[in-house]
Amino acid sequence: MAYFHELSSRVSFQExxxxxxxxxxxxxxxxxxxxxxxxESMLQNLTKPGTGISDGDFWIGLWRNxxxxxxxxxxxxxxxxxxxxxxxxxxxxxxxxxxxxKCVVMYHQPTANPGLGGPYLYQxxxxxCNMKHNYICKYEPEIIPTSPVEKTYFTNQxxxxxxxxVVTEAGIIPNLIYVVIPTIPLLLLxxxxxxxxxxxxxxxxxxxxxxxxxxxxxxxxxxxxxESGMEV
Length: 232
Description:
It contains four helices and seven strands; from the N terminus they run αβαββββββαα. It has about 230 residues and is an alpha+beta fold. It has a domain at about 1-140: Mannose-Binding Protein A, Chain A (Roll). This is Chondrolectin isoform X1. It is found in: Membrane. Keywords: Lectin, Membrane, Signal, Transmembrane, Transmembrane helix.
């Protein structure tokens, strides 16, 4: 979801479409009511007290090609920009009005007075494609070996990037590698300490052998010492 607090930063339908596609996604398409309710729950976070979020509709990927139509066939001319064949619709009362309004927004005007169809929240309305609004992108799920990440983005610049990441848990072998690799320096340190200790013990052992008496060099007098002939 790209929400711009500054009205001057909001974009046209075509600019929103290009922004989504430049990030590998597409303007939001909705397949069923369950997806509609999911988006509604995400938009409700924008209206929580203290968020400072003002009114602002969101472009979705529904639009129609060709000149203005006022006949009853007009609603059937709308199609999804990502090629989806979904026939799910959630129009506000008396919409679409057709004519020169060819691109569709999802209402998000929590401070507006309710109309004939109730509050201007989450239902769809066709609008002129050059009008400036926020927008919602839709992405294919990605598999990345990391922890699940869930983020909500608010931006004041059209060039900001947004990414929704869907991940799965890594297998046992990758987890084992992450455990073993950090222990390698510790194992090397233990081996060095053990080798140093063995070298010192071996060195001390040789030192004791060299300083012990050697019986082959002892001199023992063969003559009997005379007590009376002792000299000082």
